[in-house]
Structure formats: structure tokens, C-alpha cells
Amino acid sequence: MTVYFLLVLVYPLLEEWVFRGTLQPALKKSAPFRKQFFSITLANLVTSVIFSALHLFNHSVLWALAVFFPSLVFGWAMDRFKQLAAPVVLHVFYNAGYFLLF
Predict the structure, then answer these.
(1) Taking the chain (102 residues) in consecutive chunks of 10 residues, what is each chunk's mean pLDDT?
(2) Where are the alpha helices (DSSP H) in 1-102?
(3) Where are the domains of the chain?
(4) Cα(51)–Cα(55) distance, rounded to whole angstroms?
(5) What's the rounded Cα separation, in Å, for the pair 94 and 19?
(6) Which pLDDT belongs to residue 101?
(7) What is residue 57's predicted lDDT score, i.e. its pLDDT?
(8) What is the DSSP letter of 30?
């Protein structure tokens, strides 16, 4: 139960606060990072690359690549709704789905 609590609630909240609540908005303060490609800002792309790369400390390359696309979705939600709750909720459901599948 503790692992479930960490995986589904704590990690998404902390990760989204750091990446979508802090890093992505900081990057977007610079004009080049506000550019969009198919509704994905460069700030989101860079944040997602960093987010995925940091997963390499505890996971395989395949896993780091597997979290890249969801990270783009979480970043898009932050850009779209401008509320940290949006990517947090998506991340919670993503992690819960993973936990239920495996």
C-alpha cells in the first residue's frame, strides 16, 4: 500500500511541481521557448527531455523513452490550462493505470 501511495500520489505531485510547476514556466519566460510545434512549446519539449533523462537514474533507457510522450502530454496540459492541477491529475491517472496493469 505504501508503494501504491508513493507511486500514484506522492511522485506525481512532486514531479509535476518541479517540472511543470517550476522548470517549464521558467523556460517559457524566454521568447524562444514559447515557440510551438503542433501545440507543444519548446519549453515543454526541453522539460520532457530532462524529465525522461532523469528517469535513467533508476530505470532503463526503454523506460525513459516510454515516459517521454506522457511527459509531453502533461506539459501540454500545463500550457493549455495554466493550472498545476491539470498535469498532476493526468500523471496520477497515468501512474495508477501503470500500477493496475503491472
Answers:
(1) 83 97 97 94 98 94 94 98 98 90 74
(2) 2-5, 11-18, 24-28, 42-54, 61-66, 68-81, 85-101
(3) 2-101
(4) 7
(5) 16
(6) 81
(7) 94
(8) S
